[in-house]
Amino acid sequence: MSLDVDVRLDRESFSLDVALSAAPGEVVAVLGPNGAGKSTLLGILSGLLRPDAGHVRVGDQTVTDVGAGVFVPAHRRGVGLLAQQALLFPHMTAEANVAFGPRAQGVPKREAEARARALLADVLPDVPGLPGRKPAQLSGGQQQRVALARAIAPEPGLLLLDEPLAALDVDAAPAMRSLLRRVIRDGKQTAVLVTHSALDALVLADRVVVLGRGRVVEQGPTREVLGRPRSAFTARIAGLDLIPGVREAGVLRTGDGTMIAGRETGGPAGTGEPAVAVFPPSAVAVFAEEPHGSPRNVLPVRLASIEPRGDVVRLRAAPREGGPEWLDGLAADVTPAAVADLAAEPGSALWFAVKATEVEIHPAG
Ligand code: ADP
Ligand code: MG
Description:
Residues 292-363 form the Mop domain. The chain is an alpha+beta fold.
């Protein structure tokens, strides 16, 4: 279902003023630092918080309209919520947890249980006896998968996800990210995903809304906003180097034909599908002369700026004369000593090099 929001909420030292919309089946990521108002926004959408002004519409139902005095309670909004913590009912089995929503909607017991088992088999295919287990008999990552099944079991018109990967350890997060991609994105579930991770937004969302201090700073298609941030604020949040292109057997091919080698993530994707190559600026080595030898991606750039950042110096690239535009803004974090060795200044021709093992190639958009 579609989503249409325009709300304001005032607290003593914080105000939220946000308008956003989502088309049916669209996944919108809300990206922003701590305290930006992301959870407050989700609270307003889910019906846990009343805004001071504005409206929320889900499909053709108005669930909040301050002016008209409309406030549909949370459980009658057809909105599912997946929080950071799984928050399963501890005394119930996994199956009963997942069947709970459909049962509350009046789905007959047998049918609700069958739906629960099918969903559990989908999100956790290889855990024997899963339906009969209680949450305490599952790992954190497994509980979060059960919580996902529970959130989608009532077939909500809108699914809200509040940092669903934040509480998972580094081993569990990638698999959960892939599962979310399959269930949410590929399943055409309209969703609002709150995250402070640019990677989650890239892998999961069609569009991104960047929130800062309760205001929308930037919004648009995910790859555009994060790949070419218009504000330093967004660039800082994105915090990653990102090159858009399409997949081709083990590499990413950019619009101008450059091949970027990396590790493919997020399961199999066909040749020609949109993808992004992502790596941290700390993985970029910078050279004054073209490096040869060990296999890596070597990109000819022009130095655009030098920004001190604590212990490191961030070098920002721009394309050389006639070079591809995706080089614009690419960042490399190097030591002050390395900058001195390079004797580089804005305008200098440099080479940015990044090993294929440091580059992740993700399906996107
Ligand atoms: P985020 O989820 O983006 O980290 P929140 O929406 O939780 O941000 O918080 C936005 C602002 O509102 C913060 O300044 C936070 O301190 C404040 N805040 C959050 N919850 C409450 C509350 N229940 N009462 C008062 N202030 C709150
Ligand atoms: Mg929050």
